[in-house]
UniProtKB/TrEMBL annotation:
The keyword Transcription does not apply. The keyword Signal applies. Keywords: Signal. Transmembrane segments: none annotated. Gene3D superfamilies: 2.160.20.120. Residues 1-17 form the signal peptide. Residues 36-192 form the Putative auto-transporter adhesin head GIN domain. InterPro entries: DUF2807. It holds the Pfam family DUF2807. This is Putative auto-transporter adhesin head GIN domain-containing protein.
Amino acid sequence: MKKIIIIALLVSSSIIAQTKGNETIETRSFSIDNLTNLHISLYAKITIDQSLKEGMTITTDANLFDKIETSVEDGKLDLNQKEWIQPSKKMVITISAPNLKRIEKGTHETLILKNLNAEYLNLMAHLGKIVASGNVEQLNLGIENGTIDASKTIAENVRVNIWGYGKAKVFAENEIYSIIKNDGRLELVNTPESLKGDTKKALKKNKKLAKNNISWISFKIKNNSWNRNNFFVVGPKQNGSKFSYGFPMMPGAKRNEKWSIGSKIYKVNKLGLRKLLVEIKAEDEGKVVDLF
């Protein structure tokens, strides 16, 4: 009983700590002088446009600005929430930093990079998507389970490291070197002079995957537990890449889904760790699939 009371107190205190937006939308500017390293953990519509004057603007509820980390220390900005916040509308952030060398993101949002003009740039996508355009001499990409579309970034040389089921799409004029593990996927929109590392093997794999026949079926899933849980689904697509997203479900709730056969559903705990629950099979079509 004592343990239950403690858990209840912790849950209630976390709910109280949440700050909801007051619906008074404002746009404020912030100085980000000498920003070289940007880490994104904040859910927002973020655009980095290197053609603009150096600085950062944030558009959101007036009472949430002091809950957002905006200070640059030793050239690094960890764009995150200081406390748990719930904006009344999607937060919008625009950044321009001519000295930016490294960008790392860990959210499911899409990050837009425009008008790039750099000698060196390192992009890392653990989750979500990065869409980049411009010119870079040396472009380095690190991908776990995200996607980086740099097909409109003209790069002299590209280095790609994919260690999850992520995907990269690139334009390399001179050389591309890649390390592709597990279910990672690499696409080239041109043919550079030099293909090194796992590049040739990855391109050969693409041709093989294109012949795959992926079937999609309709069914329902049910959270047949007494608790509200967070889930994450990952499934194969026809082009060899994967779809994935997270979602919550209340106790006893059902959802209509149309996923590919072989899709896997995970339970996500408070630390973000995943536990495999169910893998969708052909015989699940038209049925209710219990998650526990």
